[in-house]
Amino acid sequence: MDQELDTPQIISEKKAEMPDKILLAALSLFAKKGYFTTSLSDISSAANLTSISELYQHYPDKRAIAYTLYEHIFDNLNVSIDDIRRRTDKPSEQLRSIVDLLFKLTDDAPHIVNFLLIAKTNEFLPEQKALLDSPAFTKIYKIFQHGIKTGEIRNIDPMLAMAYFFGIISNTLHLILTGKLDKKADAYLAQTWLAAWNLIEKKSSCF
Q1: Where do the domains of the chain lie, and which CATH numbers do they carry?
Q2: Which of 83, 133, 151, 177 is the most buried (most CB within 10 A)?
Q3: Taking the model in full, what pTM does it have?
Q4: What pLDDT score was predicted for residue 153?
Q5: Residue-wise burial string across 73-107, b where 16 or more C-beta atoms lie within 10 A, e elsewhere
Q6: Angstrom distance (rounded) from CA 117 to CA 110
């Protein structure tokens, strides 16, 4: 049995999984401790590596780990936005699907949402685009433009509409992630959506 576990194929598969294991450990630590107070030793221990030298086989430094996390998370978000936009042309439905996605991620993968909304990535990855300047949010901005054009969203500056809308969404998720709201994100989804949508919906009397 032991010989079977040590076959070259199994060893190769374990090595292939190791980078992701390191990334998950780092993501969790960055969310709990912050980037600057997390050490390579912390990441190595959290990933159950035998030594830091094993970590160096996959990533040269902590910044490389953070950069890879950034690329993975933002690329996946971009793909998700593309998928949502393909499923429906209606801006309100697209925005609702995006909000549903963010709230589901907050419950299922809170460290990812923490990295997106709370971690100040510009402080340790200054060359990378901020969330609002990312390709995913460029596409979301186009949803607001289209919503104004089709009459679903009030005729205001689309950037302002996006700021109003996501101000409510991001603040609610921030409160959940930091424990200020003690229920799961799904419990706040419906009321948060209504509050955000009512701010920008054309029929809204808020303006």
Answers
A1: 1-60 (1.10.10.60), 69-207 (1.10.357.10)
A2: 177
A3: 0.86
A4: 97
A5: bbeebbebbeebbeeeeebbebbbbbbeebbebbe
A6: 10
